[in-house]
Amino acid sequence: MVNIEEITNVTEYEELAKQRLPKMAFDYYASGAEDQWTLKENRTAFERIRFRPRILVDVTNVDMTTTVLGFKISMPIMVAPTAFQRMAHPEGELATARAVSSHGTIMTLSSWATSSVEEVASTGPGIRFFQLYVYKDRNVVAQLVRRAEKAGFKAIALTVDTPRLGRRESDIKNRFVLPGHLTLKNFDGLDLGKMDKSQDSGLATYVAGQIDRSLSWKDVKWLKTITSLPILVKGVITAEDAHIAVEAGAAGIIVSNHGARQLDYVPATISALEEVVQAAAGRVPVFLDGGVRRGTDALKALALGAAGVFIGRPVVFSLAVHGETGVRKVLQMLRDEFEIAMALAGCTKVSEINRSHVETDIDRIRIAARL
Ligand code: GLV
Where is the FMN hydroxy acid dehydrogenase domain (predicted)? Predict the structure, then answer.
């Protein structure tokens, strides 16, 4: 077992998790759809963005706190929903919930968690959002949303990019299925908690059977009739959909390509961010997930207009290796990196981070065109 003190960045956890987890579990967490072009691009697009730091700013005090949907958090780095966390570690989502609360930031619990909303709530106080998949049976959805509300969840992150599950080829090859001792805990008792083995990814078969392919914008309005919680539309990557999301009453938008697990060859989220931010035009906050592995990535996203970022895979990989302590470590490393990045860019508050702090490919083309 590697000594936690030796780990210096969040990416190291991926290889360590690979050594530790059964192949079926690791592949499920790690893979993207088909050629995995977008999976790679989610990272390389961050690498193409450069900073334009300001110097000789007094950075004795760097304040990373920010406010998301009215909740004050310690940094604009939050935790994305990832399914089946007990496949990574016996304490699963409960360990993640404790780690995230200890860092004063927000956890998003997956609909497909292996711990229920009530169990996660019982870990103690914390600001938590609930990620929602809309099932064909709307009574199931209504019940689940009500339970999340009752358990103190503060927002619904509605996933809108999954009318069908993307083709993750290793899951198909492995005939992925949830280990027998685990269930989709929120659906126990609703007779939807089990995933059967199939000739495909068991999850793809489950989705085909249960998830509503007919989901459309009118359902965002329907969701608003059954809950008073704010709704974040998760999975927007175009200006067109950003406009509609705002009109449909979304309280926020999450620019996401589902960790590159759905449609391959969509742009990296960091490349799509700016057009969504421009379309939202300050009417609702815009968040981003996908490929965030460094504090500098968070700084880039905020400079391009994001109100905050979410991390997914680093949480499950660190959970697999070091449990709750691993997730704490990941959040601490990102916090430390983000603080240094802010200081070196000459920013003392999150509100000071702006578009002038980065230079993108498009900026370089524009500058060259003017010469
Ligand atoms: C779960 O949401 C997945 O995409 O595997």
Answer: 2-363
